[in-house]
Amino acid sequence: MRFGPGPRIAVAALLRVCLVLPADGSIAAETPTPPAAAACRDCHGAGGEGNAAGGIPRLAGQSAGYLEQELVDYSSGNRTNPIMQKFAKALSERDRKTVSEYFASLATPYDVARSTANAAELSRGRELAQQGSEAKRVQACDNCHGPDGAGVPHAAPFLAGQYSGYVASALHSFLNGSRKNDPGQLMTSVVERLDDADIAAVADYFSSLASND
Hints:
By secondary structure, the protein is mainly alpha-helical. 48% of the residues lie in helices and 2% in strands. The chain starts with a helix and ends in a 6-residue tail after the last helix.
């Protein structure tokens, strides 16, 4: 059967929407964006890659359980942000689950931001991440967030490759009271023992671990 010009254009458009063609030539189905997640893309990016300059976190590949709980906490006020609270409150329980699972399923390449941290600052960040600080009675970040900040499903989010500006802001939010959703106030007890230089160092270190492998 031969298609006329109109049908051929329609078929081509449909293929562009439904399929992507990777570099190896294989064809894979593109994950459709749930309607409930459409608004999230405006800030967090079409692929959940986030925005370093805006301090907006990467969502792609993050634990669905973690993302869903954060939406619940924004809705309840346990975590405050005018924009996020507005969107979270508008979502139903089912929507929160759908949005979380969608972003968790994405394997978007990392948008690696240039770091201004020097070698000494990155070394301090690595020390806090991997060993903690006996002098400040702070345990290693990796004890909860997994080796190299890879995250622990249903327990702690990944930090590796997350934007340093966002990580630093999130840590400060535990101090200023805008975030109260850490079980047993574990994060608050850790962050209150760190100074601004420590927070910046550990944030820059985890940001430097971004990988597209």
